[in-house]
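Title: Prediction job returns without error message
Component: structure pipeline
Severity: low
Priority: P3
Assignee: unassigned

Description:
Job completed but the reporter wants confirmation the result is attached to the right record. Sequence as submitted:
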Amino acid sequence: MNKKVSLKDIAQQAGVSTALVSYVLSGKEKESRVGQEIASKIKEIAHKLNYQPNHLAKSLRSGKTHTIGLIIADISNPFFANIARIVEDEAKKFGYTVIIGSSDENSEKSWDLLNVLRHRQVDGFIIVSSENSQNQIYFLKEQHLPFVLLDRYFPEIQSDFVSINNFKAAYDAGLHLIKNGYRRIGFIGYKSELFHMQERIRGYQQALKENNLIAKKNWLKRVSIQQIEKEVRTSIDELMAADNAVEAIIFATYSLAVNGLKYLNELKLKVPADVAIVSFGQAEVFDLYYCPITYLHQPISDLGKTAVELLVKKLKNPEEGMRQVLMEAKLISRESSEAKS
């Protein structure tokens, strides 16, 4: 059995003190004014000997684990998968490891993940909230556990968050279609009381209202996440019924759009000749579709990086003031919503 390499082993080979090796391998060579040449030599020897630091001992001394718990809504969704990757990469720059869990839009699973991560003694949390999880946020506040909400937040709870302006994004989508000559515009979203979904619906409705267009109640469809394929099909059947046919549909999420586009193909309805399409959430599939899809580009990289930066600031300074960041989504206009001829 190989003997575990210690700081003393590295110090002996480098001809320096154990304390100096500790400073260098902890990234404190600049603070300790260690010369670049000796610092490089120590790191080279550590690598050669396959030195593995004892993180447990380090965390016991500092009271910190240098880990961040990330709870996202659905790891199978490209939007959240990309967010997770960005958070992981950005956290690494600050010396943090990220432990990721997916709540699958279930508040009970989110609560279980929160407790698992808490018992793993993560230093802080970045959370994409699921519906009916307000009690979890209140709990974190009461326990003075550092956290930042990402993508979704609860306006009634004072907390740090990073999100997009969902109202304006949906408003821009509606306005874009109206300017391109569409008057009968449907909207497919989720049956959800989460604020971001309500804001998307409100933005769509406001765009129609400001342009003196009547938004029929049956043009707004809300589907269950658990029955997404079945209910998207039913919604499209109702929206495209002869006496009610819409000219355009806004999909509130990428997943809704993918299911909707598949069904429109089955119905042999052409985009945009039979129905124009705008969707939230960029994805490669929108480029592969026979008609490039107009979408609302969300600044995923900025969202993830900013969430990490806010949390790290809170971890370094618990007295750091609350930050609430709203970013703008950009509408990328393509053939699926081109002007009516």
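Comment from assignee: result matches the submitted record. The chain has three domains: 7-53, 65-164+300-328, 166-298.
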